Input
Amino acid sequence: MVNSDHAEAGDYVAITVTDTSLGMPPDVLQKVFDPFYTTKPLGEGSGLGLSMIYGFIQQSRGHVVIDSKEGRGTTIQLFLPRHQGPVEPTATIDEAFAPAGAGEIVLVIEDGAAVRLLVMQVLEELGYRGVETADGRQAVPIREPSMHIDLLISDVGLPGLNGRQLAEIAARAGRNFRSCS
Output
């Protein structure tokens, strides 16, 4: 069992996720919050998922408990301090200041289908034209000088070529666009 910190006294909201997979051996369990630690093969995971969650929970003055037994699965509990007092209204974006595209072409390289679909929908709603692929090796447009691209949005941990490698290829091909990964 891993407990991220000793909790301060108070009321917490708990989010619990349990799976019945193989579970984690003790040596893996001790490293799950380490940035870039992954048990997946190269190119299949960045090792940032639990590290980012841990950071968010810490910034929120919460804590995490992970219980994992080999052969029995894993339970992760996220404890966030319960908000006391009135809820402040959510800030809204003035339509006059909302980002809006004018048909600029955005190349989206993301192996997660749901994330890729969401990014493409948002880009379209904002007035951009998206070109998408799930694999860095299929990102032919960045090598093709005749294909105009204004922005590259890429996952860092991609199968084939990762996001950094794609940015380097784009730079060598003379691409002069912003890169966001």
